[in-house]
Design brief:
Blueprint (H helix, E strand, L loop, with lengths): L17 H15 L4 E5 L12 E6 L8 H16 L4 E5 L7 H9 L1 E2 L1
Parallel strand pairs: 2-3
Antiparallel strand pairs: 1-2, 1-4
Helix pairs in contact: 1-2
Length: about 110
């Protein structure tokens, strides 16, 4: 059976197109800085699943806690402009973040 057209032809398994990955990377850098990192996790890293929202975790660099919410809103707005209306969930990783969702994103996610 042929691969679905939305799966990139890389060795990394994820259900985003290369242009979607580039858009996410660009918006992450634009909004959170060049040192920020972003992970895709959840159903989009499982080729056996269909549909689903885009779950992202961002580790910002040099962003004050005060600015996080405003930047998250700016990130989602810019991403929607590039990708169109999609369900995107974003969590922001704080320093020394011990939340289970952060651990899961690191363990099962893919850094973009």
């Amino acid at each position: 059976m042929a691969r679905p057209p939305f799966v990139p032809t890389t060795e990394i398994s994820m259900r985003l197109t290369p242009s979607q990955v580039k858009a996410i990377q660009k918006v992450t850098t634009d909004v959170f800085g060049a040192q920020a990192r972003v992970w895709l996790f959840g159903s989009r890293v499982d080729d056996n699943k269909r549909g689903g929202d885009i779950d992202l975790m961002i580790r910002p660099a040099g962003v004050s806690p005060r600015e996080i919410l405003l930047r998250k809103i700016r990130f989602l707005t810019k991403l929607e402009q590039l990708l169109g209306e999609r369900k995107v969930d974003v969590i922001i990783e704080a320093p020394d973040d011990q939340r289970p969702i952060v651990r899961i994103a690191h363990e099962k996610g893919i850094q973009l």
